Amino acid sequence: MASAGLPRDVGKEFFASLQDGRPSVQEIMRAAAVTFDCSYQDIIGRSRAKPYYEARHAGIVLCTRMRNLTYSAVAYKLSRDHTSIIHASNSAVRRILDDPDYEVMVRRAWDLACRGKADISYAEQDRLDRIKVERAAKRLKKSGNCVAADTREWTSRQLVTMNETFGAHITAYGGGAKY
User: Fold this and answer.
1) Residue-wise pLDDT tens digits, 48-68
2) Measured between alpha carbons, how far is 55 from 30 in angstroms, rounded to an integer?
3) I need a labelling partner for 35 at 20 to 30 A (CA). Which of 27, 50, 84, 96 fits?
4) Residue 3, domain member (yes or no)
């Protein structure tokens, strides 16, 4: 029976250089979501937006190449057609070979997936905290040389991050004349 995907030896050096591990499909996809800065629901969803399909393709290629799962098995786990999995895997392999930044991101996703559920959960929570801080920083008012929270309680780490984010925003967008 002929294989519909790229030959297995394409990208063989990259996949051989990754550490051994046996994370589940869900762990791989969650790690890819965190690595590419989107949610697990985003990448298992139907969206064709670039950040989501890049993460989805990375997770799929790791499932098919590193876990040696069949296209049909991955398709079943992700509620997709096996031809979509073939396309995603082929696209990701080509991108890994052509784009060093994408290669680094895929490597990070695999490393995170191999570390296990606890590290993935921590990374997801860290991402959610960062998003919360970034959203709050957009709503905060400048007070002197620091950001002052309206009536919310914030940790010192979050306030430092907000001040840095706000300072970068002021620098990038014209010295704060609008504030």
Assistant:
1) 999 899 999 999 999 999 999
2) 9
3) 84
4) no
